[in-house]
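# nightly structure sweep
# worker-07 picked up a monomer target from the shared queue
# config: single-sequence mode, recycle default, output format = structure tokens
# input follows
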Amino acid sequence: IIDNKYSKSILNHVKLIKILKGGFIMFAPKHILVPTDFSKYSDAALKRAVEMAEQHGSKIYLLHVIAEHIQQCAADYCLSTEMVKQLEKGSLKAAKDKLKKEADAIVKSKKISVVFDVKTGNPAEVILSEQKAKKIDLIVIASHGKTGILKQLMGSVSSKVLKGAKCSVMLIKP
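# output follows
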């Protein structure tokens, strides 16, 4: 039993905890969402999520979001609607294949439950929607370390997720 004055505050704010020997409290997520763009930064986030899942018996939800639509025209050149649909279909299949390969490798080596999905849309919005739909306890997401004008122009998926998430977010920095 923990009798320190901060315990009640912590217990009120964190639903999933483990009480360790000596009365220490540890956050123990059961459902971890790992958004990936297949970058080395996302790989680092996945590695950390796998370590946590192994430690706590958590289930990992691996998610890749394909940005809404392929631009059909650039300058004076346009792709046909059929060509755009083929590119989108190919992109979706390639992403699913890559996620399946990653999930299979994790399950084979670590005996962790992994579910994967590919969605299309605004990445931050889709991640937050999945968090709610899957009752996620923790999102482990990579930061690409963009700064200055590049960050202002592009926005940051991880920043939007941090601001909008209704669960804990672990940001893995480069």
